[in-house]
Amino acid sequence: MDTRSERFRTSSPDETREIGRALGALLGPGDLVALTGDLGSGKTVMIQGISRGLGFDGYVSSPSFVIVNEYEGRAPIYHVDLYRIEGADSLHDIGYREFYFGDGVVLVEWADRAPELLPAERLEVAIGMTGRDGRELALEARGARAAALLERLTQAVEDQGGRPA
Length: 165
Fold this sequence. Notes:
Elements (H helix, E strand, L loop, with lengths): L2 E8 L2 H14 L5 E6 L5 H11 L14 E5 L3 E6 L6 H6 L2 H5 L4 E5 L12 E8 L5 E8 L1 H16 L6
Parallel strand pairs: 2-5, 2-6, 4-5
Antiparallel strand pairs: 1-7, 3-4, 6-7
Helix pairs in contact: 1-2, 1-5
């Protein structure tokens, strides 16, 4: 399986959102982004940017209590939050396969709570805090499609004057 990794540093929520927007502009049906990081690290901020890049202009918030929010962009966007699940069995009850393996873009917060259910082909984003507003985004592509996405994202960030960490 193809793998590729890259790191980016941001110094504000707006910069994190902008990298998310650039990523969202590249995503399409069938793509899954698995986000991890501590509480308050910026997973939802990143998803706000991704959703903008996918053409959704509405309000994006973490679906902690409902597990899945759906937004309409260029493709259906499924924003999944696994923070409150009690294990992978909880996702079977809500029919996760319909959106994990459907025709939309899936954005999973707290993906490390049920890693065994993630598809092999995915882009993983681990967000770490480097100060009050600073973040380090460690992206790892799993599979050929995800590796190509990450390569295109790196180029897009460099074209906008940003640099990988």
